[in-house]
Write a structure and sequence with these properties.
21 strands, about 45% strand, 2 domains, Immunoglobulin-like, Jelly Rolls, seven-stranded antiparallel beta sheet, mainly beta, about 5% helix
């Protein structure tokens, strides 16, 4: 098996293997303080730090209400990259939320991935959330999220097909749906919501790979620094191999999807194997 994988690695390098992977359209990894600014209305926003060029200097994540209220600080402790922390959630049921705005440049098969958690036992966040996408004057529910502790939940959802091939701004929000705090009681002004690795991805027709060498498995973001998402995996597990052919990471596949954390891997070239499919992965 190792000899076979080494042969695959050699072939991949020789051919300049390019697997079809979803393009990261907009991403927020919170590792650059220069992207953290106040907008013209005085709200604190963080501009996208990865993605397509159309999403730089205009695409943001921010905490909002009917008026600017957000209290935002960096959390340089969690994971390899920074996370963003929002407080001030008291009395915010069905009113206070975190939102992102972005464009997709006519991409299709859109997905949203993110990590979310409470700030801890001394500063519990609101426990109940809805993720919604703006459609005209209405908000459409994408999923509900219940926070139960201060461990990160890594989540991924598909966006409605009606947003395929869009040229308009798209807005998604995480809105608190009750004043209940994680662990019980009522959330107060010191309650902290933490978010990290927010990524919107899709199949971008402008950057579509050569169909002759396109793979059925999608691995993104690529390059990666934190979390890697695998779609279309027809296998029970997904393995990440280093250049020596040794297993560096493994993840269980559920519904043909897997999530792999690579923040503790050394920067370099790796290979993600799902069944017979092998995808080159660059870790930064």
């Amino acid at each position: 098996m190792k000899r076979k994988l080494l042969s695959v690695i050699a072939l991949v390098l020789m051919l300049g293997f390019a697997a079809q992977a979803q393009t990261v359209l907009a991403g927020w990894s919170f590792n650059d303080t220069a992207n953290f600014v106040r907008d013209k209305k005085g709200a604190m926003v963080y501009y996208a730090d990865t993605g397509i060029v159309e999403n730089y200097n205009g695409t943001f994540i921010a905490a909002m209400d009917t008026a600017p209220w957000s209290s935002v600080t960096f959390n340089p402790i969690e994971y390899k990259n920074d996370a963003v922390k929002y407080s001030g959630w008291n009395n915010g049921a069905n009113a206070k939320y975190v939102s992102i705005k972005f464009v997709t440049a006519e991409a299709t098969d859109l997905t949203l991935a993110y990590k979310i958690s409470s700030g801890g036992s001394n500063s519990p966040a609101p426990a109940n959330w809805k993720v919604q996408i703006e459609e005209g004057d209405n908000w459409t529910d994408l999923e509900t999220v219940t926070l139960t502790n201060n461990n990160y939940q890594t989540r991924k959802i598909s966006l409605p097909a009606s947003f395929n091939n869009s040229t308009d701004n798209i807005v998604i929000r995480w809105i608190m749906t009750s004043n209940d705090a994680v662990g019980g009681g009522v959330v107060d002004a010191n309650g902290v919501l933490k978010m990290d690795s927010v990524m919107v991805a899709g199949n971008n027709p402008v950057a579509a790979p050569d169909a002759d060498i396109a793979a059925e498995v999608s691995v993104y973001p690529n390059p990666a620094t934190d979390m890697v998402y695998v779609d279309g995996a027809d296998a029970e597990t997904v393995s990440v191999y280093n250049m020596s052919g040794l297993v560096a990471k493994q993840a269980i596949v559920e519904n043909k999807a897997a999530v792999i954390e690579v923040s503790d891997l050394a920067a370099g070239i790796y290979f993600v194997q799902a069944g017979d499919n092998v995808t080159k992965l660059i870790v930064e």
